[in-house]
Every structure is written in structure tokens, then in C-alpha cells.
Amino acid sequence: MRGHRAAASRPPRVRARSAAIGAFVVLAATVPAAASAAGTQEVDTALPYVCALPSGRQPVTVRVSAVFPDRAEPGEAFSPTDVTTTVELPAEAVADLTALGAATARAATRLTVGVTQDEAAAEATWRGTAEPVPVPGSGPLTLTTVGDVPSVTGQGDGDLTFTAGNLAVDLELGTADGTATDPGALTLDCSPAGDAPGSGPLATVPVGTGTPGPSGSPSAPGSSPGTPDPSPGTPEDEQGNRAPEVAEDPSTTTADRDAPPCRYDDANPSTSASLNAYITGYSNVRKLRGASLIPVSCVLVEQGPLDVVELFPDFSGAYLKQHSEGRLHHQGRERTPPFQADFLTFGFVPTKATMVLEQTGPLTLDVAGETVFETGYTSFETRTRVPLVLRVTALTVNGTPLDVGPGCRTERPLYSPEPEPSKYPGDHLVLFGSSTHQPPAMPVGYLLSSGGPLTGEATIPAFTGCGTGGEDLDRLLTASVSGPGNHIKQIQGQTCAVQVFNPAECTEDLQPLKIPVPER
To answer: Which of 163, 286, 350, 352 has its CA at 20 to 30 Å from residue 421's CA atom?
Structure first.
């Protein structure tokens, strides 16, 4: 699904980018392929699978629908379209999810599809994603994902046959109050249910016409006209030369990557100034002598114009500035995805916490710099400011779960030393980055357009609202975690300018192509 686009094209300008920026057989029916339009065939197939759940292996029905071409020519690449994967979980599976406290489930699927032509074979991975759906208190649950799939090319004449194989269903689980369950994610590994009825090919696409080759005899299946037939005793490893060619997974979604969705839509319309990017990193927890991973998170930004503040006295250059605003974006909320950290509290007690960072005020991005007209030398300094409250949603100490309740959080936002307190009052994080650029060399350091590291130092405030049933966990968390001097190193990936599509920066559905890797 493409993000919202405005009718007007984006005005030309300097492009500055954001910073923070299964054992039972399930009766299944196969609907034969039918021509829906000239040159295409529609497939809608229900297949029996078995999936491994926490309670054991359970039967599951998987329905795959797609539109294939009526036929193709040798060497012609094509992609099935309108691909949908529907997983029908039985009541037993739903009971497993509710036992984890799940009220919502977001699914991502990875279906292995075998592609054969004669005796040569290849594999493709069909990936799909979905928005969160409510988990019922009882009964079945249907999860439907959609996504684009890799293209396939037949190497010669002969039918291309597509067959569904193993399936992985990645579930992101949430509670009724919007926090993550423990665990917050679950992967169901599923496989076709043996020789069950209906477990046959998804589709067959004829390739070529079987017309006579140059010698006057029909071309052998699997060989192109004019190409010698493979001789008896052809080494097995040469089969790859005749196997269908499967392209790399298309970068149309982020389902194949360890990243949450990050896109504009009708609920979050984009403008000509809209950018999105992924961020990640590490934050030290000084008292615990360790570091917590900041999960890959989405940031949506509205960039401001890059303005000339004033010219150098000799008119040889100019001072520049830019102010932009942004917000974290995860499942419709201004927060990061849930993440876990493992520490030794007080140096010897193993502790595991599930946490979320919640944005409680504006996220601002302020850039100041200068450029020399003759040489093009440019330097920039960037400060990102954002108030973030640290919320703890689950806690295990020495293997014993402690109920922190729904309101466990820092009593105020994390905060950093602020160089301009009168201009930027209140508690907030301050992260700093800088860069220099001397064309034609690549920029060095952090640059808004290409990302890079932003660093800062934070104080973690005391905790409040932690514990239930008269058990007060505020003091435990405060004593073990809260305090100053916690170094943060955040890495921002390349931004995607959603209304100026660039395949080097954006996926086809206008999500950031680049997912950064955290650095210590």
C-alpha cells in the first residue's frame, strides 16, 4: 500500500533529512485456476498445515490466493500479483495467545514456495504483513497478510510449477492497554500436513510453445531453442544452470527485515515535506554497568526549510539553519516498539525488564551550519530534543515475575544537560551530531540526509506507579536504575522522502530502505 501522496510535486530545495529520524488433517479444498481475464489465471487454494504452538502442534488451514500469468516465454521474468496468505488459527491456538495476555496480534508471514521446471528446482520466499487485529476471547482467529513477491524466470520451454512449502508466522502481541505481552513476539513454525487432500501445487504456468528448434525436432523441455540438450551424465551441480531463476526478495516492504512498519497512510497523511527514517542504538545504564538496546524504531518528520541566516562579511559563504519536527510512530502511538534488557541488579541478581519509550512532547530537530560558495565546503551541527518517559511493562527478578502493573514509569521524562535552557525549558533528551563535507568526497560524520550517529547523556528519573496488590516496586527500580551519566549513542538510517521516490532510499511502498545497525 502506498503512502498518501499530495497532488502537487515537491518543490526543488536542498534536501535536509530528519535525525531522530498440522498431526490432524484439515479438510481443505483447492479451487482450480480459472482465467479471470485475458492472459491471467486466478488461484485460491486452501491447504492443511500443522503449526508448532506453545501448547504443542496444532492443525491450521492456510489459504493462498494470487494472480499468475496464463503463460510466459523463456527468459521472461514475471511476478504473481495480488498475493494474499490467510492463516486460520483454531480455538486451541487462540487459547495459547490469550494465556499470554494477548489482546491484539500483528502477523507477518514467510511462505516458502518451490518453483520447478522439469527436474530443476528453485525456491522463493513470499512475505506478507498485516495490521494488528483483536484476539477473541475464544474461538478461531483469522490472520490475513499481503505483500509483493519475487519474480521468476523460466530458463527454457516447460511448465513452471509453484508449490507451497513451509510457513513461518511471526506474531507481534499486545495487551489491552497497548503494551507488549511477555514475550512480546512469537513465531509459529508451520509445515504442510503430509499427504492431506488438497496439498498440491498452487499453480502451473506454461513457458514457451514447444515449437521445433533449429534441428527440426521439438526442443527438449527445459532447454531453450538453439541450446544443446543436457547430455546424459550432466553433473548435478549444473542443474542450477537450467533451474528457474528467482529474483531477490523485492524491497517493497520491510517484512523481511527486523524492523517495524514505517509508512504514511490515510491516518497519517504525508506532505511535500514528509520524511521517514529508522533509528536504533544503545543506552548505558550506569548503575547496572551495562547497556540497553534501543530497538529499531520509526520516526516520521516534517522538515522545515533550510534558510540562509546571513552571509559571510565578504559574501564568500553563508550561515544556514533549519528547524523540523517529528514523532515516534509505532502502532499508531508515539513510542518505540517494546524491548527487553537483561542485567545483574546490584551486581548479582539476574533481572529482565520489558520496556517502552513514550514520547510526551514535541520532537524537534535543529540544524545550524555554514557553507563556502567557492569550494562547496559545508559543516553542520544538529541537536535533537525529545521528552521520553521510560515505561516498564514486565519485570522478572531472579527468575520470579513481579507484577509491575499498568502504570509503571519514570515520574518525568529522561533529561540531558541543555545548552540553552531558557530557550528550551523542561525535561528532555538532547542528542548531538556533526558533519563536514568537502565535495567530491563523501560527508564525514552525521548528516541529516544520510544519517549517522547522534550522542548524548541522560539522567533516568525515579520510578512511580510500579507494583500491584500493595507491593511497591518503585524503590527497587529507582535504586537499581535511576541516576545520571547514562551515555546514549543513537544511529539514524537514510531517510526516505516519501513524495520524491528514490529506489536507493525508499521501498516501493514508501518505507525507509535503510535499516541502521546499532553501534556501541
So the answer is: 286
* 200 and 161 Cβ atoms separated by less than 8 Å: no
Burial class (CB in 10 A: 0-12, 13-18, 19+), 445: middle
pLDDT of 250 reads: 46
DSSP for residue 237: G
For 92, counting Cβ atoms within 10 Å of its Cβ (0-12 exposed, 13-18 middle, 19+ buried), the class is middle
* Residue from 185, 187, 183, 186 nearest 396 by CA: 183
Q: Which amino acid is at 471?
A: E
How many other C-beta atoms are found inside a 10 Å radius of the C-beta of residue 111? 25
Contact between residue 47 and residue 63 where contact means Cβ atoms under 8 Å apart: yes
State how far the Cα of 250 lies from the Cα of 232, in Å rounded to an integer: 37
The lowest-confidence range among 62-66, 115-119, 383-387 is: 115-119
DSSP structural state of residue 273: T
- 501 has pLDDT over 60: yes
Q: 339: which strand partners? A: 355
User: Residues near 479 by Cβ (< 8 Å), separated by ≥ 6?
Assistant: none
Sheet holding 77-78, edge to edge: 77-78, 152-153, 245-246
Residues 11-57 pLDDT 10s? 333 333 333 332 222 222 222 333 333 478 999 999 999 998 888 88
The residues facing 506 across adjacent strands are 512
The greatest distance separating any two alpha carbons of the chain, rounded to the nearest whole angstrom, comes to 90
Which DSSP category does 119 fall into? T
The pairing of beta strand 378-386 with beta strand 409-410: unpaired
**SS3 call for 290:** strand
Q: Which of 286-295, 416-425, 487-496, 499-508 has the lowest mean pLDDT?
A: 286-295
Determine the straight-line distance between the first and last CA of the chain, rounded to whole angstroms: 35
Residue of 122, 106, 81, 120 lying closest to 250 (CA atoms): 81
Q: Note the pLDDT tens digit of each residue in 451-472.
A: 889 999 999 999 999 988 778 8
3-state secondary structure of 491: strand
Classified as helix, coil or strand, 238 is: helix
Question: Structure pTM?
Answer: 0.54
Q: How confident is the model at residue 8 (pLDDT cuts 50, 70, 90)?
A: very low
CA 347 from chain centre, in angstroms, equals 35
Q: Quick one: residue 226, left, alpha or beta (phi over 0 = left, psi -120 to 50 = alpha)?
A: left
DSSP run (H or E) holding 475:
helix 474-481
Percent of the chain residues topping a pLDDT of 90: 40
CB 499 within 8 A of CB 507: no
Whether omega for the bond prior to residue 183 falls within 30 degrees of 0, making it cis, is: yes
